[in-house]
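yo, Probable polygalacturonase is done. seq:
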Amino acid sequence: MEKLCKNPIKAHAAKMAVFVVVLAAALAGEVEGRRGKKARRRALDGDGFEYGAISCRAHSASITEFGGVGDGVTSNTKAFQAAVERLSQYAGEGGAQLYVPAGRWLTGSFNLTSHFTLFLHQDAVLLASQDPNEWPVVDPLPSYGHGRDTSGGRYISLLFGTNLTDVVITGNNGTIDGQGARWWQLFHQGKLKYTRPYLIEIMHSNDVQISNLTLLNAPTWNVHPVYSSNVLIQGITIIAPVRSPNTDGINPDSCTNVRIEDCYIVSGDDCVAVKSGWDEYGIAFGWPTKQLIIRRLTCISPTSAVIALGSEMSGGIQDVRAEDIVAIDSESGVRIKTGIGRGGYVKDIYVRRMTMHTMKWAFWMTGNYGSHADKKYDPHAMPAIEGINYRDMVVENATMAARLEGISGDTFKGICISNVTIGMAVKAKKQPWTCTDIEGITSHVTPPPCSLLPDQGEQTTTCQFPEDTLPIDSVELKKCSYQLSHV
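structure:
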């Protein structure tokens, strides 16, 4: 165990204050830097520009070459489909990139292809079609076995791809607008025939990059990598009304080796929700999410969590590393959601250097989460929750410090919380901690935790955070260029 300084709470608070100031300055500098880059790229639009990507392409085309019209009225679904089909022919010849110039490009769903880049100009907006005929219906995911909104299938995502290798969705902060208000209304009215579409879903794929985009008003989840590996998600801005239903930000689902960083999310649901299948379907599919990095995330979600683990976690979740997170006006900072019938596990979770402002709970563990796929779940399938580590955090204006509720006969074990200062709100609950069916330890935590999390006193401990490097952290972006050429 690491030794702490004599006055760790004050020392950490001072460090975090400096961190917030430095972060604000860095963000301001980044904004100015982006403005400068935008100006340079704008000047180069006629000839080309450079951008960072996991792979560069030998061939290029613009959506206008396939009949695309960026007037916000004309449907471009067929144009995008034709462009991807044509450019897929270059997969074995260095790949291809499709450029979307400035304009408002109305489109329904279209599929992506391997060795392919979709690039959105800073003034390009992909507008999701309001015509249900432009949203094909597909089967539920096998690890879910059931639609999330209805019992049947689901509308395919706006940008979709499966069994892909080396795919990039990026831009100079171009926008994808899901125009979700119609979908939210149908959801609230109970008039949905199928589960709402996501904005971006990539399945059964590897070497995926989603970066430098603004995502608005998704019908439901924004970014959903599922059954995939080596996924890089960075520089994404996600905005939805805070009361919009199920507009999760980024949901890595049964994925391995994922890096999420430098994202800003305002959401009607969890900002990052880590998943791995639902009840008996997830148990049978047995595909965990593991080796996940989350860093430099800023989140606002008044009704949900900044980072949620579950509730669909029946395939297991392991080795999640989150650091340098800022939470503002959110329901909970970190939440584990599970229940009887889920099975699976959530273990080896590490979170450090998190700053929270105006929270209902800093930490929340729920062992009584319902929402089953159907009545076929196994009531004897108990989840295993163990090895949960939270450290080096400052919380301001919290209604409660923590609500930690395990399952009777299935205790949540190995909980460690160290060097955490929680400032309680003026109208905070009289009992800052609620704890049942949990086991663990704490060190230098204010206010004093519940008796099930005894303070180590003189035996000062620091909760773990791995020092090794995951493979996804070694991925570096190449400097790629776009030059318009007819194909």
